[in-house]
Amino acid sequence: VKRVAVDQATRDAVRRAERLFEEVFGAVGEDGKRDVVCAAAPGRVNLIGEHTDYNEGFVMPLALEKNTVLYARKRSDGSKQVRLVSEMRPDDVCEFEASAKTPPGVPEWANYVKGVVAMFERAGREVCGFDAAVASDVPVGGGVSSSAALEMASAAALEGMLGAALDPKERAKWGQNVEHEFANVPCGIMDQLISSCGATGNAMLLDCRSLDFELHPLDDSSVCIVVINSGVKHSLGESEYPLRRQQCASAAAALSVPFLRDATMKQLDALSADALDETSRFRARHVISENNRTTEFAAALDARDYKRAGALMTESHASMRDDYNVSVPEIDALVEIALAVPGVYGSRLTGGGFGGCTVTLVDESAVDKLLTAVDQQYSAVSNGRQATPFVTKAGAGARVLDLATL
């Protein structure tokens, strides 16, 4: 398994994981370092393409420069016992036996690692016992897929330990299975696929039907992505999400297509008023137009036309707000604050909605102005909430790290 140099964005997390490992499991020593494997995998943000995934459409995620790191050492006693510790709960060591039948349990965060171990075992790739420490810069609960980052870092680390590389797509599918079985989250595959297959300086256009993807350049040093957590999360989303899916299915049936991916705006406009209720028509209009925007966004990145790319992001937000009705006032306020800053190309709600984060495409020279504007204005329009921003460029996907470069 190829090992890559430790990049600047991951260096601190690697050092924290190494320190935690030695505090909990003892010093590695020079001889023991031969058995150490350290892997990293990123969180993600979706640049455009929202609520298109379950309509078999297109999404455009980006791997963050924020990573989860798993620092692991094979056990020398030949056992299949696994011991895990996380910097979030350094006094709570989780122990289990590597097995295809390992059940989920507590602590919940460890289920993502347990699940990955079980996937390896079920595929006939026997996992040796190991000790591991986890450190992460991916915000937990921030809508940037911290769970996918942990799954893909765990899988990469096991590949390093076993000396057997997985196909990155297969690795992502295993991660999706872990979400379904070990976390009871019926998610799609976008989060795991971008965390597994992301490439520095590129965004990913993913076809949610075929699972084929293309990389499109976002490596201009003058352009940044700013992700801003609104601090709002409404439980309303839990009931509204299945309703949106149902409305999309109704619209597809009325249009005589398998999924809204297969429909055009011309077909929707030609549909009689009594053939589809008004709300489902709005939902369909969002999905059809969002798919078009997503593929056009990819073309704009290829042309390095950031004004057009930003305009498409802002159009996407208006569609999510007005046609899909998944935004909230606090998110709308963050978008408006961003768009008023010179140098901001575009901004939108990212994720399922009803709170969460915005994603903003911005000229690097305007980043400080944007952060200042959010700091000064958001609290007054959000009942005193504080937004949590971070700046990123397009980072690398899951990888085994060469600790000699640390």
What is the strand and helix layout of this fold?
Layout: E1 3-5, H1 8-25, H2 29-32, E2 36-48, E3 58-74, E4 81-86, E5 89-97, H3 111-122, E6 130-136, H4 146-162, H5 168-182, H6 190-197, E7 202-207, E8 213-217, E9 223-233, H7 236-254, H8 265-270, H9 278-302, H10 306-322, H11 329-339, E10 344-350, E11 355-363, H12 367-377, E12 388-392, E13 399-402
Parallel strand pairs: 1-13, 4-6
Antiparallel strand pairs: 2-3, 2-13, 3-6, 3-7, 4-5, 7-8, 9-11, 9-12, 10-11
Helix pairs in contact: 3-4, 3-5, 4-5, 4-6, 5-6, 7-9, 9-10
Distinctive features:
globular; 406 residues; four-stranded antiparallel beta sheet; alpha+beta; 12 helices; single chain
The string of secondary-structure elements, in order, is EHHEEEEHEHHHEEEHHHHHEEHEE
Count of beta strands: 13
The class by helix and strand makeup works out as alpha+beta
Number of helices: 12
Quaternary organisation of the protein chains: single chain
**How much is the average pLDDT?**
94
Spatial gap, N to C terminus:
18 Å
Walkthrough of the structure:
The chain has helices at residues 8-25, 29-32, 111-122, 146-162, 168-182, 190-197, 236-254, 265-270, 278-302, 306-322, 329-339, 367-377; strands at 3-5, 36-48, 58-74, 81-86, 89-97, 130-136, 202-207, 213-217, 223-233, 344-350, 355-363, 388-392, 399-402. Helix 3 (111-122) crosses helix 5 (168-182), helix 4 crosses helix 5 (168-182) and helix 4 packs across helix 6. It is built from 12 helices and 13 strands. The mean pLDDT is 94. Strand 7 and strand 8 form a beta hairpin. By secondary structure, it is an alpha+beta fold. The strands form 2 sheets. Strands 1, 2, 3, 4, 5, 6, 7, 8 and 13 form a 9-stranded mixed β-sheet that branches. Strands 10-11-9-12 form a 4-stranded antiparallel β-sheet. 47% of the residues are buried. The radius of gyration is 22 Å and the shape is globular. The longest helix has 25 residues, at 278-302.
